[in-house]
Amino acid sequence: MSGKNVTEVVLADAGGIARAVQILESGGLVAVPTETVYGLAARADSAEAAARIYAAKGRPDFNPLIVHVRDMEQAARFGEFSPPALALAAAHWPGPLTLVVPRRVDAGLADAVTAGLPTIALRAPAHPVMRALLEVVAFPLAAPSANRSGFISPTTPAHVLASLDGRIDLVLDGGPCSAGVESTIVAVRGDGSIAELRPGPLQICAQAASEGSEARIEAPGQLASHYAPGKPVRLNATHAEADEFWIGFGAVQGDCTLSAGGDVSEAAARLYACLHEAANAPHPRIAIAPVPEMGVGRAINDRLRRAAAD
């Protein structure tokens, strides 16, 4: 990285948001806090801006991006919403739910955003900083997680800079993210059925994605190996070896604890911070205590299984 390309970091106040708007309008890249993780935002109607996201992240071009919108009115310009999709949006937007729906033929978005698929992933976020941006730009924002592809997702500005410093234009510092894991993603099929493509903070009544569906990536977070800390990861560890950094939960304290009280929501909020700490520790391996498969614990375990994959 060249020292002259160090990424600018500004507070997410009125001046910082104005600076972010200026960069986004010119096709630049801005890391923005959402209620889930920091997203790497760029205008979704620009092929050049979308290409910059893929290049900065080192993201494979078959992996589509989530398009962030202000509300259902804006979302309807880009996707076709069936009654079940409309009901989900009404119940959970703004919030950490991404809906995969058929893409409108006249959507006017960069092809790279949907990775050539006939569907589009749409979300109306709840975080006030991202919403403030969406209110003042005339275009939707494509915004995958603000980290190098496959690496640990970011929930603080420092996490963003750990892998993207010098590769993007700006980080809007809005403090740590509250939910801590990426949005729940569901696909609403033509027959009205709902398939869960990625578990997240929201628990939606949906069918599990069919086995072997990874052969056709429909949304972010479906790659088998993802969220990787760069070290071997051992799951459901009730003890740690001498060379392992131990991430604890509940009664298992560890070197870093997801939640001393055994709260899965707190564990979700702390998940990536603990993984970043483990990645930076001198230990060559990581052990992680069992986390119950309940509520957002399903999303935590999904991320941990992908972090542990070869």
Spell out the blueprint of helices and strands.
Elements: E1 8-11, H1 14-25, E2 30-33, E3 38-43, H2 47-57, E4 66-68, H3 72-75, H4 83-92, E5 97-102, E6 119-123, H5 128-136, E7 141-142, H6 157-164, E8 170-173, E9 184-188, E10 194-198, E11 207-208, E12 233-234, E13 244-249, E14 252-254, E15 256-257, H7 264-280, E16 285-288, H8 297-308
Parallel strand pairs: 1-8, 2-8, 4-6, 5-9, 10-11, 12-16, 13-15, 13-16
Antiparallel strand pairs: 2-3, 3-7, 4-7, 5-6, 9-10
Strand portion, in percent? Answer: 15-25%
H and E order? EHEEHEHHEEHEHEEEEEEEEHEH
| End-to-end C-alpha gap | 28 Å
Mean pLDDT across all residues, rounded? Answer: 94
Low-confidence stretches: none
How many structural domains?
2
Helix % is: 25-40%
**Can you tell me the CATH architecture of the largest domain?**
Alpha-Beta Complex
Shape: globular
Oligomer: single chain
Radius of gyration: 19 Å
